[in-house]
Amino acid sequence: MKFFYVVLIAVLLVACNTSKPNEKINVVEDDLEVSKLDSLSFFLEHYEKFFATNFNVSECPGAAIVIVKDSTVLYKRGFGVKEIHTQDSVDVHTVFRIASLSKGVTAVLAGNLVDNNELEWNQNIKESVASFNLRDKEQASRLQINHLLSHTTGLYPYTYTRLIHRGLSRDQIIKRFKRKGVVAKEGVDYEYQNAMFSVIEKVMERQTEKSFETLLKERVFDPAKMHTASSTFDAIKNSNNVALPHSYNHYSSTYKLEKLHKNYYNVAAAGGVNASISDMGEYLKILLGYRPDIITKKRLTDIFNPIICTSNKDTYVNLWDGVTDTYYAMGWRVLEYRGRRIIYHGGNVNQYKTQLLIDPENNIGICVLFNAPNPFNGPVMPTFLNYYDFYLDMQKADNF
Questions:
Q1: Residue range 63-76: average pLDDT?
Q2: pLDDT in the model for residue 52
Q3: Residue of 18, 129, 149, 346 with fewest CB within 10 Å of its CB?
Q4: What are the pLDDT digits (tens) for 253-269?
């Protein structure tokens, strides 16, 4: 294993220097000083080199990254520009759409409500949303909060996504569920949802008599000091520091500026949260268990607890090197990775690409935000894990 990581770092460092052929290439070899390998700064230095070089090669307009260890932000930086053909640089306060990372934020909010005895995981949806129904009325009456958050409601995947894109309101979409049949009993099959996931908003609102937007602000964003985080289209549209979305043309290999659109703000719990990378650094501290005032460790354990196996599903995380099994918890994916559990989610909306990962065993987390699709998005997280495992292996070797 140790040799594998040495070779991996060597290969990646060579690749990272291809854009500067006149510079001397410093390849990691077996005789590197252990003291240097033993430092987090060594890990951060080389991961930054990997990220920066590959970001430049990808020509993606803009990105931002944050890494948190324990309760400390180790690294935080913006890359590129908010809009192509400008010099308007992305900084650590630039707002992005975080897409489906919103589902994890929603799960944290749900955990807060459970902590405050305002919600229960096994609570029936119809207790709070009497208007909700399915063609199978008995299954509709059995559906619980945990089914919503784990995508195990029994509905066909992406049910009513077309209605989200048509701009129907959350309440209009909920009324139409009575026309939908099911493909499986609740709790036994994983099928990813957005419209169905957002029903949790209505439950929370009925339980607390506050809007979902207000709950996010009062229970998560404000106490966590996520100062630029929000959950509405107007909030990001009116911000003066936004990374604008860009599409990629595969034929011309060029990026094009796109408009911010309203899609998924009508189901904000599933994909409507906006945040800067500074906000996401504070959010990582919550996920690592250092903000019990927002969500206790017991509730974090609840939302990270695997509910349904997804190893047989067509999900990209199943292709990561070192991943043996995958699951969905509540708002989160869980990966069995080289003997430990990794908590992860990715997102994709309005051309934004986002990813977040935490390694609870080692108390470290990372979030990456892009304002355009790019081939570099794929290896960002697996490489982070490989680099960090190399660092851990060198620590172990030093202790022998």
A1: 96
A2: 96
A3: 18
A4: 899 999 999 999 999 99
Residues 265 and 169: beta-carbon distance below 8 Å: no
pLDDT for 23 beyond 50:
no
pLDDT score recorded for residue 40: 83
Q: pTM for this one?
A: 0.90
Q: Give me the pLDDT at residue 38, please.
A: 55
**Could you write out the three-class secondary structure of the chain?**
CHHHHHHHHHHHHHHHCCCCCCCCCCCCCCCCCHHHHCCHHHHHHHHHHHHHHHHHHHCCCEEEEEEEECCEEEEEEEEEECCCCCCCECCCCCEEECCCHHHHHHHHHHHHHHHCCCCCCCCEHHHHCCCCCCCCHHHHHHCEHHHHHCCCCCCCCCCCHHHHHCCCCHHHHHHHHHHCCCCCCCCCCCCCCCCCCCHHHHHHHHHHCCCHHHHHHHHHHHHHCCCCCECCHHHHHCCCCECCCEEEECCCCEEEECCCCCCCCCCHHHHCCEEEHHHHHHHHHHHCCCCCCCCCHHHHHHHHCCCEECCCCCCHHHHCCCEEEEEECCCCEEEEECCEEEEEEEEEECCEEEEEEEEHHHCEEEEEEECCCCHHHCCHHHHHHHHHHHHHHHHHHHHC
User: What pLDDT digit, counting tens, does each position of 324-338 carry?
Assistant: 999 999 999 999 999
Residues 6 or more apart whose Cβ sits within 8 Å of residue 283? 105, 224, 226, 229, 275, 367
Cβ atoms of 308 and 148 within 8 Å: the answer is no
